Amino acid sequence: MNILSVVLFLGLAVAAQGQPVPLMFDTDMDTDCDDAGALAILHTLADHREVEILATVVSSRHKWAAPCVAAINAWHGRPAIPIGVPKSEAQTWDRRGSQYAQKIAEKHPTTLKSGDDAPDAVTLYRKILAAQPGHSVVLCSVGDLTNMRDLLLSQPDAVSPLGGRELVAQKIKVWVCMGGRYPKHLDPGVFGNFKPDPRSTVEALRDWPGVIVFTGLGDDLLTGGRLRETPTDNPVRQAYEIYLGKTPTRPSWDPIAVLYAVRPDAPFWNIRATGHNHIFPNGCNEWREGPPTNHRLLELRPGAADEVRATLDELMIQPPKKTRR
Prior knowledge:
Helix content: 25-40%
Number of helices: 11
Structural class: alpha/beta
Mean pLDDT: 93
Shape: globular
Radius of gyration: 18 Å
Number of strands: 12
Number of domains: 1
Oligomer: single chain
Largest sheet: 7 strands, mixed
Distance between the termini: 34 Å
Low-confidence stretches: 1-9, 12-16
CATH topology: Inosine-uridine Nucleoside N-ribohydrolase, Chain A
CATH class: Alpha Beta
Order of helices and strands: HEHEHHHEHHEEHEEHEHEEEEH
Strand order of the largest sheet: 2-1-3-4-6-12-9
Strand content: 15-25%
C-alpha cells in the first residue's frame, strides 16, 4: 500500500466511525502562509466527510485577511462558509500586515472586499454555537486569541440566554490551540500567536471553562513543497510561493493543529495530561508540571514525524470537489 493509500485509508477509516466533526476554525491568515495550508487541509478533510466546517473566523485585524480566507473557501467549493472578524478594540488594524493576503484576495475576488464587510466574530460564534448540540463543537485556533476572550465576555442576547462562558461550557467539546513553544518560550522578541494580543491570551486561557489542547509542534516538520503539483491558480499554492519565494517548504504549526483537531485518534499523538500552560503578561509561556488541569499538551509519538509530514502534504494538495453550499 503506497503512502497515498495509507493516508486516505486512515482518514476514511476515522470518518467511517462516526459523523463529521463539527469544527470552527479561527485563523489570523496574515503573517504566515501555514494558515493557508491548514485551511486547505481542512477542506480536504471536509471532502472526505471527516469534518463539517461551521465557520472560518478571522482573528487578525488585517483588512485583507478575511477576503483571503473567503478566496480559499471559494476555490475549494465552499463560498458560503461564514466568516467573522474581531470588532472589539483589543487590537488595532494592520498591526503586522501580510505578504500574501491582499494579493490572494485580488487574484480571487469574492463578495467580501474587506474585513469591514465581515460580521462581528463574537456574534457569529454565538449564533453558530447556540444552534449546535451540547458538547459537540471542536474549536481549532491558529492565530491570536482575541475572539475567544471576547466570546467569553459576551452577554446573553436574542440568540442565546447564556453568557459567553456558559455557552462555551455547554457547546464546545475541546479547544485545540496552536500557540506557544514547549516546554517554554521566554523570549518576548520572538513572534508567536500568544503575543499580538497578550491580554486576550492571558484572559482567554485563564477563564476557559473546558479542555484546551495546546500544540506548538511543527518547527522541524516541513511541508508545502508538493503544492507545486497543484494548479497554478490554487490560492494556497500562490500564498506559499508569495511568502516563501525560492524556499520550498514551511514549518507545519497550523496544519498539525488542524490534523489533530479532526483526527485526535490517529496513531501520531501523545497527550500530556499533567500540569498547565503558564502564560506571562507579555504572551510568553511555560509548561509547568503539576496536578491535572483543563490544559493538555500535544506531543508527537516517537517515530511519527515522517507519517505526519506525508499525511499533511497529501491532504494539502488534494483537488477540491467543488461542493457548493
